[in-house]
Design goal:
Elements lengths: L17 E6 L2 E6 L5 E7 L9 E2 L2 E8 L2 E5 L2 E5 L3 E5 L5 E4 L6 E7 L1 H7 L17 E4 L2 H15 L5 H21 L7 E2 L2 H11 L7 H8 L3 H12 L3 H19 L5 H7 L5 H12 L3 H9 L17
Parallel strand pairs: 2-4
Antiparallel strand pairs: 1-2, 3-10, 5-8, 5-10, 6-7, 6-9, 7-12, 8-11
Length: 312
């Protein structure tokens, strides 16, 4: 993969469509005036996100790469053409993303869901927690058609009326394609200690000693480490390292006068050598190269003019 293709998208650091306010596990998404949804193309930044939920119905359509979702106490493996619906009452966490991971993300306001999903088969979209999970592989043709549709809607965010009409159509079109697809993915049940550990790590301000993490998760260090790797596909050490990189990115982004070393130490790394090794493994390029790359990119949310090729 060309180095430029590995560059994390600054769309994740500065959304111009909405503001995210973290309040432990519950996110408040503020839609831009008049708009009834957010529609954007997410690319892997290398950072980890917290276990969270929000009042809006969400649907993701994977375009490239692989990742995993932890939804409540279950893990779902994501690959090209996976469509997953996330409801307001479902805690979820995206993790273990491949470098090229890319997907469409749509958030729908409660109001537009209520006004649009009125048919009997559609009303489940308006519930807080349906008590089941909605994740399927849709056909490649369906995924390509939906991707074109989402792009067209995203391009019309400057016209409130056109955008909202397109959002309502996208909601029903995506749900129809989902229903027409094959059987739902069952996912993998997570041990409660694994789910608890993922939440604790995601909410860390300062790195928690491993014995304390294991104690609060209810298992021994060895048992927790094995279960975590078996059920998430990533080791506890790697998961925490990615979280530390995320902390670095936040600290460095808000503290313009901080050096890379200062931000790295504040994020919990013991030395620049340790930080450099972890950063390059997680992001794909070194921190200095990353800084040079982001300096040439505008921190706004952009939508590519063409649909991504569906593939590995």
């Amino acid at each position: 993969m060309p180095e430029s293709d590995r560059l994390p998208s600054l769309a994740l650091l500065a959304f111009d469509r909405f503001v995210i306010i973290f309040s432990c596990m519950h996110e408040i998404l503020e839609l831009r005036d008049g708009l009834q949804a957010n529609v954007w193309r997410y690319t892997n930044s290398g950072a980890m996100l917290r276990m969270h939920r929000h009042n809006e119905l969400e649907v993701n359509l994977v375009l490239r790469g692989r990742a995993q979702y932890l939804v409540n106490d279950r893990r779902f493996d994501l690959r090209p053409c996976t469509m997953i619906w996330l409801f307001p009452g479902q805690n979820h966490l995206l993790l273990n993303q491949s470098l090229q991971y890319e997907m469409w993300v749509l958030y729908f306001s409660c109001d537009i869901v209520k006004r649009t999903a009125t048919a009997v088969d559609d009303r489940v979209l308006g519930v807080d927690d349906p008590g089941e999970y909605f994740c399927k592989q849709v056909g490649e043709d369906s995924a390509g058609w939906l991707s074109d549709l989402f792009q067209s809607v995203a391009d019309r965010a400057g016209s409130t009326a056109l955008f909202n009409a397109g959002v309502a159509y996208s909601l029903l079109a995506a749900w129809q394609q989902y229903q027409a697809a094959g059987p739902s993915a069952l996912g993998t049940d997570l041990h409660p200690a694994v789910e608890r550990a993922a939440r604790l790590i995601g909410d860390e301000v300062d790195p928690m000693p491993m014995p304390e993490l294991a104690k609060r998760s209810g298992l021994s260090i060895s048992r927790l480490s094995k279960l975590f790797h078996d059920q998430t596909g990533v080791t506890l050490v790697e998961y925490r390292q990615r979280q530390s990189v995320q902390r670095f990115l936040r600290i460095y982004a808000r503290g313009r006068r901080k050096s890379i070393l200062q931000a790295a130490l504040e994020a919990g790394f013991g030395s620049y050598a340790q930080f450099y090794k972890v950063f390059k493994r997680v992001i794909g390029i070194g921190p200095l190269e990353y800084r040079r790359k982001i300096a040439t990119h505008s921190p706004t949310l952009t939508h590519p003019s063409r649909r991504a090729t569906l593939g590995q």
